[in-house]
Every structure is written in structure tokens, then in C-alpha cells.
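Entry for zinc ion complex. Fields follow.
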Amino acid sequence: MAKTYITTAIPYVNGAPHIGHAMDYCLADTFARYARLRGDEVRFQAGVDEHGNKIFQKASSLRIPVQEYVNKNAQSFKDFISDLNVSNTDFIRTTDVEHVRRCQEIWTRLRNHIYKAKYEGWYCSGCERFVTQKEHDENHGICPDHAKAYEKLSEENYYLRISDFKEQIKKAIETNEMRILPEFRKNEVLALLDESPDVSVSRSTVQLTWGVSVPDDDTQVMYVWIDALSNYITVLGYPDQDISAWWPAAAQFVGKDILRFHAIIWPAMLLGLGLPLPKVILSHGFVLANGQKMSKTIGNVVDPMDVLQRHGIDAFRYYFLRHVDTFLDSDFTWDKFEESYNNELANDLGNLVQRLAAIMAKNNLEYSAEQEYCFSGEYIKLMDDFEFARAFDLVWEKVRAINRQIDEKKPWELAKAGKNSELAECLKGLVARLLTVNYELSPFLPNVTGKISEIFTGNVRPPETPLFPKEQKK
Ligand SMILES: [Zn+2]
């Protein structure tokens, strides 16, 4: 059995889950379910990033112990993942004792590529980062996000020598040994890699205390990179265990805003550890609201929980996997969402199931699948290329084709004319088609496809309530 390892980015738990996180989970879950149906054994990681000043400050402002704060938020992400019916096998938290210890071990193993250096520059404590002189001047010395003056700060930190690995990373990207998806982001990443400086991987404990201590230097705490990125392998047990059965990952799913870290810093770490690079890094676009980036300031943020509550999980996954492009920015509007629910899920699929099941039941017809289902070649090609939205389109075209066939074959007329064997043959053919399509739909819509299989197994009975009720549950 082939082994497939799939990862999702670990969200920073200083807030509630948003639509962007949902995209990671839905895409990765679709791929995981597809891989399982193709016979692979799948390990599927999800998790949360819990260190850093923003979390520390948020907890302090709420006057609760920081561990208590992250426990609560980690749980809300766990609940969200379960609401989305994500089939992850692992959930890692960067405050897990084992993660912390393994992370320190990773640091030690990277030591030949880490050096200490003094840096002086303009710093915003809100952003937790240094800005260039140019950025400082453009903003007239004041951080626009925090309305605070930049401070002149001089700090001694550890740096990861990205320059040790640039050539290797470049070659891996160019030869597709590490595939960057979508393809058009490849050149972007290569340009960034070219000009990428060594990255600072620690902070003085004067700046940051809520983090993993740097081994053998209690004046320094790890900054996000080594702490967070290493989760993809510490969750597999690295370095205590041999991870070669699972690593390299088949695919790592990330938002486009963090692609550069996953395509530059993370590969540098892996190469420094002597580990192979992931086979694919897939970056998805942003979900926009009426063409605009969602932002708290504009007040146009769509809460994924509201979308889930409107019509349930199938409608949620349907919209974000089919009508949101797998790779590009796409729009969410409530109108489009309602339209896709009513015209597509309810009319195309819900009615099809209802119609076929009703006429089967009325004529006391049973159904038993005579053959195992399999994916079409075209579907496999799209799924293997991570073209999920296009694969979904392909399957939906088949749903519509079955509807057209029913209209053409008019099984109700065969029933009226008493042509029983012709009727049975016609209906069984249609159900067989539906169930084949249902199988291809199942990685996208695990809930409703499970119900549909049940409806058409043995004695066929139409669902007691419509699969997609038209009245809004709001
Ligand atoms: Zn700032």
C-alpha cells in the first residue's frame, strides 16, 4: 500500500478560524479522501501555532494565563476542523511537550547552518519585526498598522544561513523535484529566493518569552520559523523516529501569503537536516467578498460558521471546492452561495436522487451494485494534478447528464405501459450511473454521498426529508 502524507498550514491561534483556513482544510481533505479511495494509506496533519508575542499580549490583555488562552483557541480550531468533516489523522500543537523537545533537537542538528549576528534597525513591537530604512521613511517613522513610532533596536540573534541552500532549492523548484503549484507562482518564488537574505530565527528573551528556548542559550527564544515549520515532521516523530515511510509529503497545502516561507525557509531547514523536499507545495488563493479582500476594517468579513449554519456542511464544501478556484482568488457572496445551493445542489443533485429513488420504490425495485466503482481517467488526471475545482466541474456535468437521460428515457412511461423488465433495466442503468458519479463526488462531499449510497443499497427508499431542503434554515 502506498503511503501518502498530506499537510495543512498551522494557523496562529490569536483569533477565530476564518474562510482562508477552511480552504486549506477542504482542499487537503478532498485530496486525502481521493488518495484513500485509490488505495493509499494516508496520514493527514493539521494543527495550530501557539507561540509568539501577539498571543502572549492577547492573553495578558484578557488577564488569563497564556496556556489557558491557547488551550481554548486550539480547541476552537479542532471543533472547526471537525465541523468541516476533515479526515485528518493528526493534530499538532506547537506547545506540545514532544514538539518542543523535538524542535530543540532540530535546532541542534541545524547548528552548522545557524550563526549569531548583531543587527541594528527599525523595529515595530506590534508587528514583531524589523522594517527596512526605506519602509521606515515611506511611513514617516510610524507603523501604519499599529500607529506607533518605530524604535531603533539593536539585537543579537541567530540566523539561518539560507545562502547555504539557495542553489539546491532553485534546482529543486526548476526541475519540479519540489513542485510549486500553481505553476505561475514558480517564477515569483524563484525571484524571492534569489534575493532572500539569511533569516533571523530567534529573538532575545527581552523581546519574546512565550516560545521554545534556544538550546544552550537561555537569552534567546526561537522565532516562529523553526518552531512552526518543523511541525510537519515533529508530528511524524522526527527525529526520534524514522519518518521515511511518510516523508517527503505528497502535498503541503498553504495560503498564497505564506508560500514563500514554505518554498524558501522550510526547504532550507529540510536540506540542513538531510531530509528530502516535499513533492508538492500547493498555494491557494484568497476568498474575496464582493471582489474585495475581507478585512475587519472594511467590515466585510464572512464568518465561516455563518456559512456552515445556513445550509450545512455539504453546501459549504460544495461552494468552496467548486465555485472557489483551487489556485486563484475567488469571490464569495451570499447571493452566489444561495444560487449554488438552490440551483445546483437542490435541483441538480437533490431532485435527481429523489426522482430516481421514488420511481424505484414505487415499482419495488432493489438495487445491488454488481461491480466496484472506479474513477474515470479524466477525473484521475485532474485530481492527480490537484485541479480540484475542474474535477468537480467534470463530475457535476455528469450529474446533469443523468438528469437529461431520465428526461429522454421517460421511465414513467415504461411503468405506465407495464413494460416491467424494460423499466427495471432502464432504472438500474440510471442508478448505476448515479452511483458511479456519487463515487467521484465522495472526496468532495463525504456526507451527502454517504447518504446517497445508503438510499440505493438493497431496498431503495427515497429520503424522508429532501437532501437539500429549499426553505432556508437560518
Ligand atoms: Zn506594526
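NOTE: The domain at 333-459 is CATH 1.10.730.10 (Isoleucyl-tRNA Synthetase; Domain 1).
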